[in-house]
Design brief:
By secondary structure, this protein is mainly β. The protein is built from no helices and 14 strands.
Amino acid sequence: FFSSRRRHTRFRNVTGVQTCALPIFGKSLITLSNPASDDLTLEGNVINHSQSYAANSLNVKSAGGGLGDAPTPFSLSANKVSLEATQIHVVNDRPLTIDTATSKGTVFINNGANDVTIGQAVQSMASGDAIRIVGRIFVNNGGSSGLSAPNGRWIIWSATPYLNAFGGLQSGNDALWNTAFDAQNPTIGVSGNRFVFSGTPIF
């Protein structure tokens, strides 16, 4: 049950519906002929957590639902994303640019051993661990306001600060060292915004 009343004609070689007006459920509902270079936009009232999409650029707007939840994240294979949902829980499998991400709930981006770049801004209105981002290298092109968690805090896990580009983003707290991301315990035991590094400091 899909509506194709609004199509994004600039997206080439798309098989399936490009814009959905009804809830989206299931897996891989849309297939791109060339996911390495083609772009995709999804819009719906509810976008379920069981989705898996591959695209060069993926824009997702969920009016009433979240993108993923533990233990089943929204699974991507994308180079660049723009996301808007009540909750964002994303796992990606390649270097990723988060152009924008806006959520009333938590934002969790797990890019594993791949690099993560903030293009403009990531914002969460949640309390507690509002924004959590995991990647090998962290690059912030959004300036000092690249991450915004006014009711909670943000945590960035990466390998080492020496390869990162912080872009003016300040945690205001001491960094944590020798602390790899633990999927079984995806938080830290100290308060405040934090940069967390799996490596050892070089003096």
